[in-house]
């Protein structure tokens, strides 16, 4: 698969593949076919761009968005709570922009992700290409509940991640989907959604059920002293985690 590079000049960043052209007020350049991270490319006006391999946070900033994506801090908690690793089989529902699926794919997990909106799914597929995980992340258009029969007949999943309004209904089917010891994680912007997921997990006989609010505050240091930055919103949502026996 053709790699995608991040071209950086100061606070400017652009995603381009080898052979593609970059046009800015700093000039024009074409990414060479043999470009490598660390190379410095000059525009026709003499300004330099540094070539980098894009990392997860870079992709979060540069993916085409079809809604509010899961924040990197939430994704970090998903990975930490489940121990997601290379070779894991992950079923994801509510692809959206595809940030979570891309992060998991870059861990070398095999991801099947469902998105109901066909246009959103097509954007997610292009984002997977940019992330270099199009071969390990299968973006499917459709409803995961309607596809349950096919999924249940296949091998079990190690992790089930849900960012959909009908997540509780899917959680109730988790025992049919997960391998023994597998995890389910539900992301919800509202605490009512988390409560419904907790109740569904209890109905399904899942164990180790916990819910966590995700909050992160950036620190500010200046001549007057040190304290959390008062700008921005530290809260993003709620993560409910449960495990199949």
From TrEMBL:
Gene3D superfamilies: Vaccinia Virus protein VP39. SUPFAM superfamilies: S-adenosyl-L-methionine-dependent methyltransferases (SSF53335). Pfam families: GCD14. Residues 73-219 form the tRNA (adenine(58)-N(1))-methyltransferase catalytic subunit TRM61 C-terminal domain. One of its GO terms (biological process) is tRNA methylation. GO terms for molecular function: tRNA (adenine(58)-N1)-methyltransferase activity. PROSITE patterns: SAM_TRM61. Keywords: Methyltransferase, S-adenosyl-L-methionine, Transferase, tRNA processing. This is Methyltransferase domain-containing protein. It comes from Haloplanus aerogenes.
């Amino acid at each position: 698969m053709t790699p995608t590079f991040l071209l950086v000049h100061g606070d400017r960043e652009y995603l381009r593949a080898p052979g593609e052209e970059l046009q800015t007020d700093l000039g024009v350049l074409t990414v060479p076919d043999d470009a490598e991270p660390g190379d410095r490319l000059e525009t026709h006006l003499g300004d330099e761009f540094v070539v980098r391999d894009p990392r997860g946070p870079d992709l979060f900033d540069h993916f085409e968005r079809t809604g509010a994506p899961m924040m990197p801090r939430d994704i970090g908690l998903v990975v930490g709570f489940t121990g997601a690793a290379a070779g894991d089989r992950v079923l994801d529902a509510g692809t959206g922009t595809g940030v979570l699926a891309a992060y998991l794919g870059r861990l070398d997990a095999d991801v099947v992700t469902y998105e109901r909106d066909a246009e959103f799914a097509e954007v997610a597929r292009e984002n997977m290409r940019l992330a270099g995980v199009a071969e390990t992340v299968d973006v499917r258009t459709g409803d995961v509940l309607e596809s349950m029969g096919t999924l249940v007949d296949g091998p079990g999943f190690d992790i089930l991640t849900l960012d959909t309004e009908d997540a509780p209904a899917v959680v109730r089917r988790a025992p049919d989907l997960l391998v023994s010891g597998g995890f389910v994680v539900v992301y919800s912007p509202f605490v009512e959604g988390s409560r419904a997921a907790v109740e569904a997990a209890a109905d399904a006989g899942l164990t180790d059920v916990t819910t966590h609010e995700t909050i992160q505050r950036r620190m500010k240091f200046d001549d007057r002293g040190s304290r959390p930055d008062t700008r921005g919103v530290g809260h993003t949502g709620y993560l409910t985690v449960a495990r199949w026996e």
